[in-house]
């Protein structure tokens, strides 16, 4: 994870003040994690506002183009003193007066190069008397003073890009990092080149800093680029405004943040429950039970589970087309195939056929979401032909008969989980089934965590924790009306739930969750009920 360079004071062309040098930054080099660095940087960033208001007035608290404060500081040394004051007030001075937070500068000296090769530190005030125009050597001496007096570790563009003798003179005099112009994707032709350039730089013994641009968007590609290249440094300026914060937030994986909030021990990648056959209210067919799912419990990683699930998912199309015709290959609300199957056992047989054809017999188990409340009758029975009205009642079962049907299914098929096999108030039937089968019944001793049915994110973390404390398992679940937001993928990993249900491996609102899970965290596998 890179050390972030937070822009706290803005000057140069990025701010409407007299400060010539462009960025005065802080680098939390002694933080132990990116999360801690972000906290330290944010704490220091919010302190200068009070200092500036007291010294320059309330109207001096505005920010520049990149989110740093832009008071009308007249002298560059004063900008550095503001940083030191903020760092000390935040309590990051460290042992023996050594700062835990170091300072970086982006001078952008080309902005104030004069025609005769000097540097005008009062270039924004026109006309001016030339009193602040320095020869290159004088500017070099100024930097050496700064490095001696302040904990500066990096200076970007201290001279014009063609003023090589001055660069060489400064580098031979100070033991800090001098940074050339930005390494930016928008200054390189292709993403491929934006990867090759840092690799070539590293091969030559150079360091690499991945950097933002002034006209930023909320795209966070550079955060991934910095981590993927192990650049060690990223500059995406002030920890404020969404176009900046999105990069920093990308550096603090959401699942890690949830892990910290929940106090989760070892992280676990969940076993996915892929919806292959749709029925119930989610499909325009006669199938009463809602979801017929596969769980790749014997995969060794989430990546392998996703591959296995995808392979099995694509097989039923050929089976269905051959058996029911081409028009039976449409899908339901959640992406599962929705042929006009008349019998729930037939739905299970379709799954078994697909699993066998994919070569995963014994490696993939079956799960069901019955949604039995959908077909509860007024007299407490269950109508397995509820979508056909009127009907003769031939498929209406008493609760015990439905319980016996489930027991047959469990005996005949590799079923490991049944969700909502009875109405939520039919407790006696739940108890009867649980005492008869050694499988997971959802929601009896297993919590289905559906975030949109809980008031806050905090509650969506507390509820699973309380369930686990009571000896229950946890399944993090999608909703029918899904979006491309992938929060539940991070929630499942951060809570180490062991199970996630985000249905068929098709359509973007489903695939985004699965793609988010393609990491290297250990896979729950057969221990999915109690990882």
From TrEMBL:
GO MF term set: phosphopyruvate hydratase activity
EC number in record: 4.2.1.11
Q: Which keywords, in A-to-Z order, does the entry hold?
A: Glycolysis, Lyase
> What processes does the entry annotate via GO biological process terms?
glycolytic process
InterPro entries from the entry?
Answer: Enolase, Enolase-like_C_sf, Enolase_C
Pathway annotation from the record: Carbohydrate degradation; glycolysis; pyruvate from D-glyceraldehyde 3-phosphate: step 4/5
Q: Residue ranges of the Enolase C-terminal TIM barrel domain?
A: 1-263, 266-531
SUPFAM superfamilies xrefs:
Enolase C-terminal domain-like
Record-linked PANTHER family: ENOLASE, ENOLASE 1, CHLOROPLASTIC
How is this protein named in the record? phosphopyruvate hydratase
Task: Supply the source organism for this entry.
Answer: Ilex paraguariensis
